């Protein structure tokens, strides 16, 4: 899980850096500038020398950063890949084993156990595999790379602050390829801000203490805006014909409005009848359908992938006893070269779809819906062959 972060000054409590470490160029020179920047902000020269002494560029990290083809999968395929009966059974056991911890999290931070269980499962298989990549190498490699330096450069200094506090070993701390650490995979700056010593041993140990990891994750979600005691996602049934342009992540309507249009919970009553919600159709009007309550937006503060976020949110409902979603009978979507062709056509018409990568992200969905509406097609934001041909 990773998110856009604040500046170095806000993360580590430092003054504005005196050196600007530009991305790209010679790696060793970049590291040298990082050391100068740290010292200019008050860190001891000996400490910074030890911290950066063995850092190296990791080509495997760069390869992983560019190889995220799993996010090209549609929601149904992706969710079936990630959600196994084994993960469900383990989640139920973990909910019982750590029941008292989850009670504390719900009391102190207002976050449901289903939400954290789902993250715990997806990120590290309940702590079973937390990543074996050297964290400092990963962070410096990604800070040096010019794709997202604004995200990763501050994390290097956050790791330095953890090191100064005795909570980070630059040679032995390992985690995911993108620098996340521990059972729920938190970046160093988020550990500084939201790390909790849940088991009372005087340390925040996200790699070895499930209690610390879960409490820290709950605090972080609260920090990101989680609304205590409110739902986050609910499966619904939609009528055969309605104004599909009202669906998507851009606008929320009161539940009473959706109800008036014929939207109904697939089972039971409305979870958040007094709230506003967004109608989410991940595979168009003929596929699965959900309403997303305000807490759903917090997921995007932790991960930017629409498919991952929706799957994590849905899995949280499953772990709380919700039913298997109805996959429906969606129209075939676009994949690979066809999706890239659509993105190029949308970009040529002035839409911001981001990188032409074949991934159906938020920008491509919004552009698809706009063009569907312009062309008189059902504006459900699901790109099909009919739309590609029409463009």
UniProtKB/TrEMBL annotation:
Residue intervals of the Transglycosylase SLT domain: 27-315
Q: Which residues form the signal peptide?
A: 1-20
Q: Which domain of life is it from?
A: Bacteria
Enumerate the InterPro entries for this protein: Lysozyme-like_dom_sf (IPR023346), MltB-like (IPR043426), MltB_2 (IPR011970), Peptidoglycan-bd-like (IPR002477), PGBD-like_sf (IPR036365), PGBDSf (IPR036366), SLT_2 (IPR031304)
Q: Which EC number applies? A: 4.2.2.-
Which residues belong to any copy of the Peptidoglycan binding-like domain?
A: 336-391
Top EC group: lyase
Keywords of the record, alphabetical order, are:
Lyase, Signal
Q: Which GO terms describe its molecular function?
A: peptidoglycan lytic transglycosylase activity
Q: Name one GO biological process term.
A: peptidoglycan catabolic process
Pfam family membership, one: SLT_2
Q: Which PANTHER family match?
A: LYTIC MUREIN TRANSGLYCOSYLASE, MEMBRANE-BOUND LYTIC MUREIN TRANSGLYCOSYLASE B
Q: What protein am I looking at?
A: Membrane-bound lytic murein transglycosylase B
Q: Which gene encodes it?
A: mltB_1
